[in-house]
Amino acid sequence: MQLKSLEHLLTLLSFVVGGVVGAATSWRDMEKRQFQTDAVCDTSYVWASNSKQQTPCIVAAYVNGACGTNTYKVTKLIDGNRYNAPNATNANPCSCSWASYNLLSACTACQNMAQSIPTWDAWVYQCSSYLGNSYFPADITLASGTSIPFYAGTNPVSWPNHQFDPVQAKAIAAQSTLTPATSIPLPTDHRRQRRSVPE
């Protein structure tokens, strides 16, 4: 009788442990699915990937999703199209960051559509107080599982004509990988403005 009770208890315990492990696996899978892209980079742009071999398109999804619900999809471009610049409705410290502009520009270039890369001035036209003095907001946490490639930390005003330059970016790319923890702190008014971003 006691043996059957013990077997029953062990069976029940295995279901509970299995469920917890399964839930943890599902959570990891769900976390990976939060940031997506269907854009495919040309193999000549392998330099634009980060140290984890993630394309600039998927890293851009991480960067842009960090200011909202940690979900974001960077869609592939169709001939003649470009990624929309932040506007009065959706601008935030992430979409207006140097990293966002540089990564989405690299994502544009790697789809062989460099002619569709906007200037930095056009990109941030409606960013106003969301502009920072570093490549990514110091007070925003980037989700784990990615890293920002070194070229994406370039201040866009240093590109020729303030427009992302794939040739210069490639020359910068091999230098290092950035970590948001090393960001220069943003001005106090920037942090105050962040609180008013709609969820």
Task: Give a description of the structure.
By secondary structure, the chain is mainly alpha-helical. The protein has one domain (53-194). The chain is built from six helices and four strands; from the N terminus they run H-E-H-E-H-H-E-H-E-H. The strands form two sheets. The protein has a two-stranded parallel ribbon with strand order 1-2. The protein has a two-stranded antiparallel sheet with strand order 3-4. The longest helix is centred in the N-terminal third of the chain and has 32 residues, at 2-33. 38% of the residues are buried. The model is unreliable at 16-30 and 181-199 (pLDDT under 50).
Distance between the termini: 57 Å
Main-sheet strand order equals 1-2
Run of helices and strands: HEHEHHEHEH
How does the overall form come out from the CA principal axes?
globular
Task: Give the amount of beta strand, in percent.
Answer: 5-15%
Number of helices: 6
- How many beta-strand elements? 4
Rg is 21 Å
Helical content class? 25-40%
Mean pLDDT across all amino acids: 80
Largest sheet: 2 strands, parallel
